[in-house]
Amino acid sequence: MSDGARWAVLGPGGISGDFVTALPFARLGALHAVGSRDAGRARAFADEHGAPVAGTYDEILARDDVDAVYIGTVHTTHAELAHAALDAGKAVLCEKPLTTSPADTDAVLQHAARVGLPVVEAFKYRFGPFPDRLRALLAEGAIGEVTEIEASLGFRAGERTGRLFDPETAGGAILDVGCYPISLAVGIAAWAGRSGEARLVSADGVVDQVDEQADAVLDLDGIRARVRCAITADTPRRVVIRGTAGDLEIPNVWGSRTDSADEALIRRPDGSTEAVRTGTVSPMAAEADATIRALRDGRTEAPEIPWSQTRTIARLLDDWRAALG
Questions:
Q1: Who is most buried in 16, 150, 310, 317, counting CB within 10 A?
Q2: pLDDT tens column, 53-82
């Protein structure tokens, strides 16, 4: 591999456009190729974003001058493309959720372990100085023992069309945005030193062709987490982590596609407060660099989103969806 890793984007859609816009801010790689089922779409996207190479998925994965792939396609194609990329010897950064089922998720991770290549689930809020600070605060007991988490993410989609409302592409709120509060809750429990059983306690929601709004209560080794998601309603982006020695309030832990989160507030039982502030980064560039660091170091996982958590997230998402029928 040369000094700069060569990225291929698989799937010339909207989220991939955000990724390639962020990629110039990465330190360890640059856009080199674009793949699509439709070679014409790949060529148009490549021309728009300055990639020298374009072609079908098979053509791009067969190339020796591609080191890593970003998978930005619909949920139901993630597993197939991840397996194909691993077979071709490429590191994988895959949009969340990694797959649509725990069994498929485990199969991809086992494949990566066999071939010794990284697979990173692209929860962009996990990368950068703010999540590093959040991990440290929880690990050092800044709010005492964590007891409860409240987290939500939701938006009101325009028309009820497209992949979000299509059961055939695993549409719905839970897999599209519910994975964020679930993954955060799983991460918080781990950072707080809780590594025992994680289970769904209860669930409710609004279901039509797909789950449009959903609420759930989780038990994460004694930490109670209340999570909410929606694609037909705007929900608060604020996250609250409650502990025995204070609460940690984060106005927007998710950040945006261009800027990571940078602030939180600790509230103490005595009424005092402590502001937490960090720098920001391009989170999609940061997750790309984390994937390349793992590749260069010969690791299969990125510490920001370890496979044990990816597996737990997949199981909880599956249980949540099943509970809503």
A1: 310
A2: 999 999 999 999 999 999 999 999 999 999
Residue 23 CA to residue 142 CA, distance in Å, equals 34
DSSP string, 77-97: GHHHHHHHHHHTT-EEEEESS
Rounded to whole angstroms, the Cα distance separating 200 from 145 reads 21
What's the domain count of the chain? 2
- Beta pairing class for 91-95 and 29-36: unpaired
The whole-angstrom distance between residue 229's C-alpha and the CA centroid of its chain comes to 15
Is the pLDDT score of 3 beyond 90? Answer: no
- Stretch (H or E) spanning 53: strand 53-56
193 and 137 Cβ atoms separated by less than 8 Å: no
A 10 A CB-CB count for 258 gives 15
Residue 114 and residue 216 in one domain: no
The Cα angle at residue 178 between residues 172 and 182, in degrees rounded to 5: 150
**276 in the same domain as 181:** yes
DSSP character string of 99-165: -SSHHHHHHHHHHHHHHT--EEEE-GGGSSHHHHHHHHHHHTTBTBSEEEEEEEEE-B-SSS-SGGG
CATH assignment at residue 225: 3.30.360.10
90 flagged as catalytic: no
Separation CA 289–CA 294 (nearest Å): 9
Closest CA to 209 of 180, 162, 171, 239: 171
Domain assignment present for 94: yes
Amino acid 211 reads D
| 2: pLDDT strictly greater than 70 | no
Residue 204: band (very low, low, confident or very high) from pLDDT cuts 50, 70, 90: very high
Range of the structural domain that residue 46 is part of: 5-123
The residue annotated as part of the active site, out of 32, 96, 111, 228, is: 96
Q: Could you report the per-residue pLDDT of 139-188, keeping only the tens digit for each?
A: 999 999 999 999 999 999 988 889 999 999 999 999 999 999 999 999 99
